[in-house]
Amino acid sequence: MAEPGSLEAAAEHERILREIESTDTACIGPTLRSVYDGEEHGRFMEKLEARIRNHDREIEKMCNFHYQGFVDSITELLKVRGEAQKLKNQVTDTNRKLQNEGKELIIAMEELKQCRLQQRNISTTVDKLMLCLPVLEMYSKLREQMKSKRHYPALKTLEHLEHTYLPQVSHYRFCKIMVDNIPKLREEIKEVSMSDLKDFLESIRKHSDKIGETAMKQAQQQRNLDNIVSQHPRIGGGKKSKKEVCAGSDLEVKNTSPMSEQDSGILDVEDEEEDEEVPGAQDLVDFSPVHRCLHIYSVLGARETFENYYRKQRRKQARLVLQPPSNMHETLDGYRKYFNQIVGFFVVEDHILHTTQGLVNRAYIDELWEMALSKTIAALRTHSSYCSDPNLVLDLKNLIVLFADTLQGYGFPVNQLFDMLLEIRDQYSETLLKKWSGVFRNILDSDNYSPIPVANEEIYKKIVGQFPFQDAELEKQPFPKKFPFSEFVPKVYSQIKEFIYACLKFSEDLHLSSTEVDDMIRKSTNLLLTRTLSNCLQTVIKRRNIGLTELVQIIINTTHLEKSCRFLEEFITNITNVLPETVHTTKLYGTTTFKDARHAAEEEIYTNLNQKIDQFLQLADYDWMAAEPGSRASDYLVDLIAFLRSTFAVFTHLPGKVAQTACMSACKHLSTSLMQLLLEVEVRQLTLGALQQFNLDVEECEQFARSGPVPGFQGDTLQLAFIDLRQLLDLFLHWDWSTYLADYGQPTCKYLRVNPTTALTLLEKMKDTSRKNNVFAQFRKNERDKQKLIDTVAKQLRSLINSHHLLKLKLVSALHPVCTPGGMQ
């Protein structure tokens, strides 16, 4: 029996051989490896040789079985080989021909291939360029807009470029450069727009004057139109009527049509004939920079920065505008330029307020206006106080009213300006009073203080037209004739009316009621009468070189001016339409003014007369030691009486009481002066002869009093002025001491007006004379008796004086108790 190990090896070798026979040659490697991995490869080779031999025997058997067919096949194969060779030659020839013919096609195909490649590249390039071209076009457009300074569209273009176009081509290098330049472009736009804003601010600063002038001119024309419409409601819009009105007012009146609020309220004024437009703020200043800059900063997210910058710069400009020039008060143009700049500033701000949204707001405008209003009022108060010309003050008032009306038309409150005008009104009144003070002084200084002569009816009517005077007797008199007053009466009356007109001019357009205007005019007129005119009259009256004739004429003039006061009342009533009976209506004090002036003139007449009398008395040269009197009154007194007669003859036109008072005053002063002359301390002695001469002078005075130099005195009233002298002289000349001493103190005393002190003084002078001139006469009995009598009389007079003095002390003690340390008694 065979061993089991050999059997297994033989079975494995058989399996390997079958696998080799049935397996593809490419996969035989693993099978053969399994043979060599084992230890029986020798025996395997033997089996493999045996298997090959078996297959060779089978092939040989098969070949022997199919030999004839194989031979036939070989024969046919040989035949096929010849045909195949022919076919091969034909194919080779055909291939050669085909190759030769296909070379051109291959070249064309290569060319076509290249063209197709280029076409594809071109198409790809075009597609890419179609993406890049809008970017480049937008960038070119951006540069063009920047170059033409269209910054806001440039900013919009930049936004489209950044957010829409660049993201599509962001992988290109040039796009990255653009993206890097975008912040720089934005900053450049921002800087350029800010530069434009600065130019705009400089422009409106320069044009504020012109803008304000235009706005105020439009307001003036609008006010003129309103006045014309209110005065001529039926005229309407007729060209002919309006031209007639323009000719009457010397003003160029134009139609006005209000613009929308968006145009800041500026009125475009057109002349109906010439169609000439008055430029508004938007015509004088290009506002586009501020709008562009606002939009640019808004887009850039810096609107708040822009608003703060704009407001800060405008506040600075406002402070510069509100700073008045130092010489503004010298001319009206200075005020006008100042107002034009302020109006121009706020017209621009109003335009900005209504054409931008939020750049400025109403609170900001109101704040600026409050500051401007306070500074403007302070400046006007300061500079207007320097104005001394009433015409300039009046023009300033009209300019302030126009200034206020202009700004009020733009919605700014101007009540404080009108309140300030009331303050300027008082200053205007003061300047008017100063001006009229000079006018009155010139009138009074140039007057001849004589009645106005009238040669014909024309001159008479002219003067009556200037001054309300009616006198039936004067009208009946033939020409030539004279008015009782001098030229300054109608001139002063006319100037008072001119003053009233001047006051009325200031009250126009102040929005005052008729009552307020009437009150203002009356108060100012009262100041004119009671202060200005009164002072001028007092100055003339108190002049050193003024004569009695001038004083008399002043009294006559003031009398007529006093009568004219009621006509001034009517004049004011007519121009204000406020009846004098209205409650709170101020009354004119002209009557008091003229009365005071007349009283001052009367007092000056009395003083002047007394001074003349004193001048004559200075010529008195009495011989107090004369033994015998002269045959007539003293020469100086005769001349004095003649002067008084001629003077009182001029007083015929004076009111009766004035002439009588002047005459009585002169006589009393003359009597008092003669008494003082008689009792002078320098006259230590006088004789009976001197006393008799003095008596002749007093009799001359009494004769003058009895002659009635001024009509109207009853009986011997004027002679009573000399009663003291007369009784004193009678007492001494008649030596009636017994009667005097016996009846002293009695109401029926003959010498009631003789004061014992005066009598004693004069008696002492005569006693001293008797002692000196009659030293040896004392040895004669009659002279001794007379001396004793004088001494006795003197002693009794002293007793009377002492008793009178004690009585007076008792009366004083009774009326005024004396305060003692123990209390009141």
What would you note in describing this structure?
The protein has 825 residues and is mainly α. Among the domains are: 178 residues, no CATH class; 141 residues, Tetracycline Repressor, domain 2; 186 residues, Dsl1p vesicle tethering complex, Tip20p subunit, domain D (Methane Monooxygenase Hydroxylase, Chain G, domain 1), CATH 1.20.58. The protein is 73% helix and 2% strand. The chain has 28 helices and six strands. The strands form three sheets. It has a two-stranded antiparallel ribbon with strand order 1-2. Strand 1 and strand 2 form a beta hairpin. Helix 22 packs parallel to helix 24. The termini are far apart.
Keywords:
single chain, 825 residues, mainly alpha, Tetracycline Repressor, domain 2, Methane Monooxygenase Hydroxylase, Chain G, domain 1, 28 helices, 2% strand, exocytosis, coiled coil, EXOC6PINT-1/Sec15/Tip20_C_dom2, EXOC6/Sec15
Number of H- or I-type helical stretches = 28
Poorly predicted regions are 233-276, 774-779, 818-825
The whole-angstrom Rg is 69 Å
Shape: rod-shaped
Helix-residue proportion: over 70%
Distance between the termini: 201 Å
Under CATH at level 1, the class of the domain at 619-772 and 779-810 stands as Mainly Alpha
Which fold name corresponds to the CATH topology of the domain at 619-772 and 779-810? Methane Monooxygenase Hydroxylase, Chain G, domain 1
Main beta sheet strand tally, sense and closure: 2 strands, antiparallel
In percent, how much strand structure appears in the residues? under 5%
Question: Whole-number average pLDDT?
Answer: 78
Which structural class best describes the helix and strand composition? Answer: mainly alpha
Secondary structure tally: strands: 6
The protein's oligomeric status is: single chain
Overall CATH architecture of the domain at 619-772 and 779-810: Up-down Bundle
CATH level-4 homologous superfamily of the domain at 619-772 and 779-810: Dsl1p vesicle tethering complex, Tip20p subunit, domain D
The largest sheet has its strands arranged as 1-2
